[in-house]
Write a structure and sequence with these properties.
Structural class: alpha/beta
Shape: globular
Oligomer: single chain
Strand order of the largest sheet: 5-4-3-6-7-9-8
Distance between the termini: 59 Å
Order of helices and strands: HEEHHEHEHEEHEEEH
CATH topology: Rossmann fold
CATH superfamily: Vaccinia Virus protein VP39
Number of strands: 9
Length: 253
């Protein structure tokens, strides 16, 4: 028992030291600037001299938190353009990365914000970005998909459908949230494993996506308890979407 306590204490001390190191690295090597397509939000962003891969290490977790992704960007844009979606609600952002969605929800008037990410460095980045935007967000390290649905009003998820296994876990978690009466919003640029047959498209916009090195169409969805159409067919959801033609996207405002 004593050894277990000592071991846990050593791990906690190591993790705390890593988080201090990450904070110093981000403050020193990133630049604070307006988020692409979401200029209301400022984020610490890398530049060619940041050497992000060197910091996380060749065997370290991919630094998703350092870059802008289409799903998080379009979801943040949607929340700022539709503040009534989150105003006065308790919101949990799963896989928060840079924290852009949680920050947007806070700016839109959410009553309480919690952001979770499995990568400890991501939680540091999200906390620093929240502070830079003057919003209060409770950020924690953890697997947000592993626990039962939390006590919250709305769950937001951006860019979590890029791998088959992760997509299945995300869909199962969102289904459990829906069954528990919790609202769900998904942001995604149409990646391969996105379960369109379980989604109702609410809005779409053209936004930048780091993975595709340029602007891509992305959409915001509500998760549904059962299929809206046959798997692999997105016609029903697409027909009900709100479209923003090129040049008139909310991302260009």
């Amino acid at each position: 028992m004593r050894r277990d306590r000592i071991g846990r204490g050593a791990l906690a001390e190591r993790d705390e030291g890593r988080q201090h190191e990450a904070e110093a690295y981000i403050r020193t090597n990133f630049r604070l600037g307006k988020a692409p397509a979401v200029p209301e939000i400022s984020l610490y962003q890398p530049h060619p001299g940041s050497r992000v891969t060197r910091f996380v290490g060749e065997d370290g977790p991919s630094p998703y938190w350092a870059y802008g992704w289409g799903g998080g960007t379009v979801l943040a844009r949607y929340l700022l353009d539709h503040p009534s979606t989150v105003h006065g609600l308790r919101v949990l952002d799963v896989g928060t990365g840079s924290g852009i969605v949680a920050i947007a929800a806070a700016k839109a008037g959410a009553a309480r914000l919690e952001a979770v990410d499995i990568d400890p460095v991501a939680t540091v980045a999200a906390r620093l970005n929240a502070e830079a935007n003057g919003v209060a967000i409770a950020v924690r390290v953890g697997d947000g998909l592993a626990a039962p649905p939390p006590e919250t009003d709305l769950v937001t998820v951006g860019d979590l459908f890029y791998e088959a296994a992760l997509a299945r876990r995300t869909a199962a978690f969102l289904a459990a949230c829906h069954a528990g009466g919790i609202g769900t919003l998904v942001g995604d640029p149409g990646r391969k494993h996105l379960p369109l047959h379980r989604l109702r498209r609410l809005a779409e916009a053209t936004v930048p996506d780091f993975d595709r090195r340029g602007d891509v169409p992305a959409a915001v969805y509500g998760f549904e308890p059962g299929p809206l159409s046959a798997p692999g067919r997105s016609g029903t959801a697409r027909d009900r979407s709100r479209r923003y033609p090129p040049g008139r996207s909310p991302a260009g405002r």
